Amino acid sequence: MATRIRNPHPHLAVFYDLAYGIALDRASKLIADGDIAPTEQIFQAPGGATTRKAIYKVYYQHAYPVGGALSEPALVADSIENKNGHILPYVRFQGGRLAMDPLAVKVIDQASSTRGK
């Protein structure tokens, strides 16, 4: 049985052109109620050791809109080098502008007004 978290703070997911948010206590309830099931993911270290982790994918239908792109970010190729000398390439976003959704502004205002009560 999942432990419920009493935490109204938002978790934000920002995609290429849209952003969504959900309160952590709402996500916890969705998990506890079985509306969101875990996906097991296996991670393998360069030495061969594996670690299994449960990943919870919160679908955007359960979240509220945070904003949409006004201008697109650039996709920039980058890389990091791990302690074993392996080069790990990835793509990162640079720049772009996001317009806040009125509902997100309302959520922020409500959270600010109840803070410390």
What this model shows, in words?
The chain is α+β, with helices and mostly antiparallel strands and 117 residues long. The chain has one domain (10-114). Helix content is 19%, strand content 45%. The chain has two helices and eight strands; from the N terminus they run E-E-H-E-E-E-E-E-E-H. The strands form three sheets. The chain has a four-stranded antiparallel beta sheet with strand order 1-2-5-8. Strands 3-4 form a two-stranded antiparallel ribbon. Strands 6-7 form a two-stranded antiparallel ribbon.
Secondary-structure topology with pairs:
Blueprint: E1 10-14, E2 18-23, H1 24-32, E3 38-44, E4 50-56, E5 64-71, E6 74-81, E7 87-94, E8 97-100, H2 102-114
Antiparallel strand pairs: 1-2, 2-5, 3-4, 5-8, 6-7
N-to-C order of helices and strands: EEHEEEEEEH
Query: Into how many domains do the coordinates divide?
Result: 1
Distance between the terminal alpha carbons, to the nearest Å? Answer: 30 Å
- Helix proportion of residues, in percent? 10-25%
Strand content: over 45%
**Structural class by SSE content:** alpha+beta
Task: Summarize the main sheet.
Answer: 4 strands, antiparallel
Q: Compute the average pLDDT.
A: 85
Number of strands: 8
Q: Rounded to an integer, what's the Rg over CA atoms?
A: 18 Å
Shape, principal axes of CA atoms? flat
Strand arrangement, largest sheet? 1-2-5-8
Work out the helix count: 2
Q: Runs with pLDDT <50, length 5+? A: none
